[in-house]
Amino acid sequence: MLAMDLLWGSFFQEIGKNEYGEYCKMHDLMHDLAVSVARKEGTIVNVKEKENIADQTRHVSIGFALDSVRDVPSSLLKANKLRTFLWPKDRYGPGIQIDKIVYDSLVSSFNCSRVLDLSHLCNERLSNSIGLLKHLRYLDLSWNDRIEVLPHSITRLVNLQTLNLTFCNRLRELPGDIIKLRNLGHLYLYCCNSLSHMPHGLGQLTSRGCPSKSKPSGGISELRDLNNLGGRLFIEGLEQLRCNTGEVMAANLRAKQLDFLSLGWKRVVSDSGGGADKDKMILDGLQPSQNIKRLDISGYGDLPLSSWVCSLSNLVTLKIISCQHLRHLPPLRLLHHVQLISLQNLRSLEYIDSNSSDEYHLRDSISSKFFPSLRDLDLINLPNLMGWWRTTGAETDQEHQQQCPLFLLSFPCLETLYIRSCPNLTSMPPYPSVEELTFNEVSDKLLRQWFMLPTPTTKPGSQASTSSSGSPVPGLRALQIGRMNTFEYFPVEVLHRLTSLDKLTLNDNPSLRSLSGVLKHLNALRYLKVESCEELDLLNGENGDYGMQWKQLRGLQDLILMDLPKLESLPEGLQHLTNLRRLVLMNCSHFTSFPEWIGNLEASLEEITIASCPSLRSLPEGMRHLKSLQKLKITNCLYLNERCQREEGADWPKIAHIPEVTDELDGQESTIPFHIRSGRRCLVVIPPK
Predict the structure, then answer these.
(1) Domain CATH number, residue 108
(2) What is the number of structural domains in the chain?
(3) Rounded to 10 degrees, what is the CA torsion of 387, 393, 399, 403?
(4) What is the DSSP annotation of 131-159?
(5) 163 within a domain of the structure (yes/no)
(6) Among 163, 196, 229, which residue terminates a domain?
(7) Distance in angstroms (rounded) separating the CA atoms of residues 563 and 254
(8) Degrees (nearest 5) of the Cα angle 379, 381, 382?
């Protein structure tokens, strides 16, 4: 509440949210004013002033990395009146391990602290001295990934309101008498994957607000009295409740203020022994409130999901994962506010909507009601999925599809469609608004449907109609096609309408032979990656143009060519790509010639990577002209690595002007920046002899 008051008073500005949570900005003048008012009461200690923590200082944040024990300021150990201590951290770097004596001294010196951040440490145990901090309100132990148990002294912190154990992934248990923390309002246990159970009596912490994980061996009925329970709740190991399904109803999740509920079964069992029936009863009893925004279900059995799943009127995200025997889904079309649906590893699922097209059309034929808010759709590893609807035989024929009312329905707002490992999927409702599209290991029939399907157009209040003009996805920006064993070519009549496509990725398509007639239509393309296409010849088009069609890609900035055994040299048309910035050649075993015309790209080319191209024996003289080139990386090219040796290699004079040259061979790396030129700082590293 105080933070909002400061925001409304313009103390903070431009509040926003990213993957780490909410953030805001502060004007420079406001910052200077706050520092002036605080004076020495609050300070950020930098490395030069680490021994100058004043006696009157109450709030300290360390502004430099503590890489070892000797970096801990001795003045910090004497600052026994601190109210706040924030530990320095690097989210992606390794934590540090503090000597036990120093650790105990450091913690015990904070006996007046209200806020203590001890995150990102590598110590195996939390200091027992923590129990002496009787005034502590907030304790952050997140990312202490070596701690397995917490000291029982932590239960003496009777004033503690928030305990953050996020990403303590070796933590096995919580103290059994944690109920002594009667003021605990927020307990964060996200990604505590080794936590085996919750302690008994947890339900007595009635002020508790935001737990992140619950395991029923501590008694799921403990959740009954936690009426302020909010935020995210993960319940795992639900198969353990098959012998006591009555506990489920006692949890009373409908009365909780949850935003995100995750329900998980560890073992997938068949209907033998009544396991599936019990799982259905468990799921029925765990219905959350209508205000929930995200629901994840994993490991569920083979009976239909509870009907309440599709009654969650405010649901935004739905993920159903690894329910191997699940054969039917509830009518997901009723989720009018859902923006993301992810279906993964549902090996028995054949249709997303099991109703026949006629039945569906009679109930809901207006496309404006067909997933009106859906933005992202993931279909991953659904090996038996055949279609969105259970259709009749006639409707599966291409000539009947466009006359069937069902196929006039389309996703009006879908922006990202990702389909992987769905080899039997033959048709999908149209998706005219999609911007990112991935086909990976799907049927040729689905690909042909996308190529040939007319564009759906919808008028408000009317059914969708079709038009033969335009592209099926006119706003498509990114396209990936991979692991298509019989995919040989692109239909030119489709690609010349993809006027917005700026990213194209082709990978693991062993039958793809040519891009002839394709590239000249992709005028907006900026990124192209071609990988593991064994039969692809980029040089020879149908008319023997030796790759001149590439000159049409005027906007191309990144070109990545990997695992192309037929590639012997670069297409000649590349010399006309005046915007090309990055060129990557990897694992092209027959690549023998780097063309002289590479020097024509002197104004744009900034980075070249050549890796595992054993047939390439030298670099061209044109390399001397690449004045904009900043990085050259050569990896595992035996002849080329030898010729590019610093000062000694035959090709060294051709690349001596490049600020950074990285030479790697057999796992040994020599980074060779050199030549301090005007306006550029450069570190000279001489490899050991």
Answers:
(1) 3.80.10.10
(2) 2
(3) -80
(4) GG-TT--EEE-TT-TT--S--GGGGG-TT
(5) yes
(6) 196
(7) 54
(8) 75
- 154 CB neighbour count, 10 Å cutoff: 23
Tokens of 444: 């040729």
- For residues 152 and 175, the answer to whether their CB atoms sit within 8 Å is yes
Q: What CA–CA distance (Å, rounded) separates 302 from 326?
A: 4
Q: How far apart are CA 353 and CA 341, in angstroms?
A: 14
* Structural domain includes residue 109: yes
> pTM to 2 decimals?
0.81
Residues 6+ apart with CB under 8 A from 50: 62, 64, 71, 73, 75, 76
Question: What are the backbone angles phi and psi of residue 38, rounded to the nearest 5°?
Answer: -70, -30
Task: Specify the DSSP class assigned to residue 516.
Answer: T
For CA atoms 163, 168, 169, 171, the dihedral sign is negative
| Token pair of 360 as six digits | 């569906």
Q: Is residue 686 part of a domain?
A: yes
Which tens digits make up the pLDDT trace of 201-218? Answer: 776 665 555 555 555 445
- d(CA 143, CA 122) in angstroms, rounded, equals 9
Residue 8: both structure tokens together: 């409304």
From the list 201, 98, 225, 213, the residue with the least C-alpha distance to 166 is 213
Residue 627 is assigned to a structural domain of this protein: yes
pLDDT in tens, 258-307: 999 999 998 644 445 567 888 999 999 999 999 999 999 999 988 899 99
3-state helix, strand, coil in the chain (%, to 5): 25, 20, 55
Amino acid found at 539: L
Q: For residue 585, report the phi and psi dihedrals to the nearest 5 degrees.
A: -125, 120
What are the backbone dihedrals phi and psi of residue 210, each rounded to the nearest 5 degrees, phi first?
-145, 65
Distance CA 689, CA 686 (A): 9
Closest by CA to 287, choosing from 256, 247, 316, is: 256
List of residues 6+ apart from 61 with CB closer than 8 A: 43, 44, 45, 84, 85, 86, 88
Q: Which of 3-7, 248-252, 667-671 has the highest mean pLDDT?
A: 248-252
Please, are residues 415 and 476 in contact by the beta-carbon 8 Å criterion? Answer: no
Answer yes or no: are the C-beta atoms of 515 and 538 closer than 8 Å: yes
Yes or no: say if 325 and 350 are a contact pair by the CB < 8 Å rule: no
- pLDDT tens per residue across span 444-503: 888 878 766 544 444 433 333 444 444 567 889 999 999 998 888 776 666 777 889 999
Only one residue has tokens 């290699």, namely 649
* Domain span holding position 142: 79-196
d(CA 248, CA 223): 10
Residue with tokens 């925001």: 7
- In terms of Cα–Cα distance, which of 260, 258, 280 is closest to 269? 280
Q: Which residue, of 196, 218, 245, is where some domain finishes?
A: 196
Show the tokens assigned to 204.
């007595």
Token pair of 282, please?
Answer: 């468990």
Distance CA 594, CA 609 (A): 12
Distance CA 685, CA 617 (A): 26
